[in-house]
Amino acid sequence: MNYEVCIKRSIEYIEQNLNNKIELKDIADRVFLSKYHFHRVFHNVVGEPVAEYIRKRRLMEAANELLNTEEKIVDIALKYQFSSQEVFTKAFKKLYGVPPREFRRNRSNVVSMSGKSRIPSQLSMVA
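^ thats the sequence. predicted structure below, dont judge the formating
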């Protein structure tokens, strides 16, 4: 079985559903693997667990919205399936080193830092 194709399809599904609840079983069913086997294969190919990948992608999209919109932080948090603004802030600060409000307030510093930015590059997708 070509696991790279399975992972590519699963990542496409994840990308299309970042705003929706994503269950491991739903992703595994789409690529015809058990959820346990899919989780192992995904981790081996991508280098991190499925849930961590999804969390990082949601935070990356949220960071983009913080920089490019004036949408309320709580609305962005809920849009990307965080249960509350507090949970979102904790996860955001863990990834970016600053809370979302400060990240937005200092957007010019984030953009001007370019190579030194705390914004991680897009996670590489399997070709």
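The chain has two domains: 3-47, 56-116.
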